[in-house]
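Q&A FORM
Asked by: J.P.
Topic: structure of Glycolate oxidase subunit GlcE

PROVIDED:
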Amino acid sequence: MVTTPDIPSRDVVNHDASEALADRIRRAETEGTPLRLVGGDTKAFYGRKVQGRTGEAETLSTREHRGITEYDPVELIVSVRAGTPLRELEAALAANGQMLPCEPPHFGDDATVGGMIATGLSGPRRPWAGSVRDFVLGTRIIMRQGSEQRFGGQVMKNVAGYDLSRLMVGAQGTLGLITEVSMKVLPLPGASRSLHLDMPLADALDKLAEWGRQPLPITAAAWLEGALHLRLEGGPSSVAATAERLGGDELLDGFWEALREQRLDFFAAEDPRALWRLSLPHHTPVLEVPGVTAETDVLYDWAGAQRWVRSDADAEAIRAVARRAGGHATCWRGAGGKAVDEPFTPLDPVVEKYHRNLKTQLDPKGIFNPGRLYAAF
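REPLIED BY: S.T.
REPLY: Here is the structure written out as tokens.
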């Protein structure tokens, strides 16, 4: 059953449904009913199935809790309710010549701001601009007792509760229900140009390491099928001079959006092998990943710090490769497009202890998205 606040038509673009959401959470806490928190549900594939200790979880939607509550283009700060469609926020920012620097993926038209915060996923600009967490200034969260509390603020120096706000990023709704977030935004670049340079993978990684030590206006770099793809952004003269220096051909429009939204052929769901995401330190050399038989089985994003791999090898074998390189591996999609029981790298015992203690303190009855990240909590 899906629980949504009793409000007017979905055409309403500004509505505070926090009281209805808080009331449902209070009842869930009293009854011990597990809740599956959702926004647009476009990232339902990312993580484990929500399953409470007492049975099937009830879905609680934030989609009617929407609207931009405050926006100051001069101060580069926006506050927005969690159920607000991500596309609406981005359109409002673009109308003022601004953007979300972390370039979050949508994976569907219904993607919400709350889903962006809960998953913490960032796009191609992430290594140069920062992650979702880096731009969160504050949040409003409904805790297990049904009380809405504010953490952080609207300026970087306001640090009261700041760490808890950042902790909510990527927590997948397991610690509480995010109702509002305040974020730092940035101006859109004055000019943008994308290049396609044919070169082997090893040469591309060497070049990226070299260019990374220079003040070049690179804001995206991906290697795929024998070619390095670059995006240059900044002042018109700087972009033009860098493009002339680096050479290559003009890259077709839409490549970076297709990469961010995983619409490239590389991500085709019909591939029978599992799709893995390897998160690695910068300048990690080419790795020998089990089950990878051709260069077409890999896509290097974030200048090589994020690598997408198609492989039918054992999960532990792939994770061992990432671990030895100082990173970790997430099973993004199982063989044949199926979900997997444990998509995330198992936690170190010490880290797991802290995770468990935090969950116990904030959600002792396990009503918020239980099992979404790990089976134990």
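FOLLOW-UP: Confidence is low (pLDDT under 50) at residues 1-12.
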